[in-house]
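Recap for those who missed Tuesday's class. We walked through two folding examples back to back. For each one, the amino acid string is listed first and its predicted structure tokens come directly after. Nothing is annotated here on purpose, so try labeling regions yourself before you check the end of the notes.
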Amino acid sequence: MRKARLWGLLWTSFILELQGAPASEEIKYTKTEGQRLDESCPVNVNKYLYSRKAWQRLGDRGETQTLVKTDEVSGVNSEVHMGRNFLEDMPSEGILHVHMVDLRVEDSGLYQCVIYQPPRAPIPLHHPIRLVVTKDPASHIDPIQNLAQSSTLPPVTTTARGRIHTSPSPVTQLLPTSTASLSSPGLGVNPTHGTDVPSTVPRISPTSIVTIVVCGILSKSLVFTFLLIATQRSFGR
């Protein structure tokens, strides 16, 4: 499987060299911030075994920016990195591995792996690579909205495990209060209650009093008259 892939890469490299320039078709990768790009570029072993390789970025006007390049020309495997860009050159296998780590939005652009031979123009080894880096959706959350969401907690439901004992509420009955009023001049205490109590002392009307007095006078007059008649009779004998 690995040999088949290698032969495929070599065949692609051979076709590109015959054309003198890479095909216009681009290889597009869409990544999210923080991810990495891994690409393998085929190298003609017979022609570029001892050549330096580089990873470049292409500008909008065709200008090139070399991000990282190999230093070894001995034909042995080597690794080199600069910043977030890594090259792993395997000349004997005809493969140049490119790694870009911790991708950022500003890394979006067009890249190529080349044979680096200044002052001559670089020779592209592969199709141009179009890299598109997008923002991480998690980083788009508004901090105020995030704070509001984290502070909105679901209601907490608690289950009572004990029994609630209820006792009857005490009933308070209000007793009738009594008030005492002082009467002058004798300062006698006359108890009065909240409820009216009928009086047990009979009341005598003035007419009854007059009748009693008149009856008493008449009875005395009758007795006196009887005694007077009895005395006269006794002296008349």
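Example two. Treat it independently of the first, because the proteins are unrelated.
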Amino acid sequence: MDGDNPFLPDDITANILKRLTVRCILRFRCVCKRWKNLIKSPSFIEAHLQHSSNQRTVLLWPRYGNDNPLPLYLSHCGIRIFKRIKAPVAAEGVKIIDSSNGLLCFKIVDDVSSPPSLLLPIVNDYKIVKVHVNKARNVNGVEVYSLGSGSWKEVEFENLQGVSVTHSGEAVTANGVMYWLGISHMILSFDLATEVFALIAKPLLFISLLSTLSIFENKLALLFLSSAYSIELWVMEECTSGISREKWKWTKTHSIGPFPRLLRPVTIWRNEVVCHDVVMPRLEAETGELTNILYVFDLTSDGYRVANIGKCFHGIFNFCESLVPLNSDHIEEP
């Protein structure tokens, strides 16, 4: 460090600050103008996001009840609840769709026939994809909102005629592609850059209704409870060789169990599979209240943990805090 300059070089300062929480970083904007400009720079925001995504991901779930605004709970290593935050929305009639880059997408539950939409980043933009379905759960309309342009538009979906999605309609995203779990033997995909739909076959012998899509090592993954009461993890990869006629290949990478009870896989968090009881909630003997139990299985060992996360939770999401800004404060309904 130069004796005439009391500041560390910007690259060293950024490498230190990116390891801190958002709350600390926002306070440090007041240290000096140089730090303020560094913290709000796109390069630092991206570096902090990458570090948070790899090191500071947590589980987030809302608890619905009479509380207003909607309470959100965060948990990290050990599934220990360590923070309760309040969302800036009322609890009644609101559902969290998913989290992306530290941002949360909320949906006003006014149309039970449509699967939830999802907020996702792609080519320096955020898009909300809204898939409309009829009573038979068949896709009959698709709209996409771009935060960059601030407008909705309809998207072609001719190749989805007769395709049905699950009742939850929840989607996951990997490498700029969204995926929905279909009711039949197909998975629905949507490329956020080209805005083109495609259909992908599920693994052979897939018959489980207790299944969910997730992301494992930045690839699409399918978790399901097998007939042997074991949870299987299948990962999809793109075929790069010209030998196979199929564009995609499924590989079973893990099998957990068998279990003495029915467990529903929820998500993959870091290197762990999160599940909950199919028969839930459970009556707590000491308090007499209905509670929910999570089972967390480590994919790198045979260990697992059990956690009581309380009552009335709806959805569990991977979440990482970030400095990523929005370009718009309000999104109008289409």
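Answers for example two:
The radius of gyration is 22 Å.
Residues 328-334 have pLDDT under 50 and may be disordered.
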